[in-house]
Specification:
The protein is α/β, with parallel strands linked by helices. 18% of the residues lie in helices and 22% in strands. The strands form two sheets. A four-stranded mixed β-sheet has the order 4-7-6-5. It is globular.
């Protein structure tokens, strides 16, 4: 499970990139964190090693790969559903990015963030950051409930 979003597995979040079992019994797990400074990375590695050990696999290597960079497009449909069920507005799909320089846009992008409680699109961003760096704090203008939104990357 993801340490910061315990309703999601690492596969739901798209962090789990691969699992290989060699002939010698060595298990190699490949993960890509949501960002390179993710504070939960050590916990993810330790949990994977512990859980595989409990399943009888004692020769475990957890590899961290940063390329290609993780994107919210990797969050599975089940992961998006689970986020919404737990009151967190899931990220929209970003799609492929153009090659070349990153365009500079100084104006904040206005995107439709639907309330996970009532479904209204009338929401207001209260803070660009919430309980973790990957979430923003919103309030629904219809039902007045605050909620978190998993930011698109």
């Amino acid at each position: 499970m993801d340490p910061e979003l315990p309703m999601l597995t690492l596969a739901d979040l798209g962090v789990l990139r691969g699992v290989e079992c060699g002939e010698s019994g060595r298990v190699t797990v490949t993960i890509t964190p949501t960002y390179s400074g993710c504070p939960a990375l050590d916990e993810m590695r330790a949990d994977l090693t512990r859980r595989l050990g409990e399943a009888g696999y004692h020769d475990v290597e957890v590899r961290t790969v940063l390329h290609p960079a993780w994107t919210t497009d990797w969050v599975s449909a089940a992961g998006r559903r689970k986020l919404a069920e737990h009151g967190i507005a899931p990220p929209e799909r970003v799609g492929p990015r153009a090659a070349g320089p990153v365009p500079l846009n100084l104006a904040p992008a206005r995107r439709l963030v639907r309330c996970p409680n009532c479904g209204s699109g009338h929401t207001t961003e209260l803070s660009r950051f919430s309980s973790t760096a990957c979430k923003a704090l919103f309030r629904c203008d219809e039902c007045r409930e605050p909620f978190e939104h998993f930011k698109e990357l």
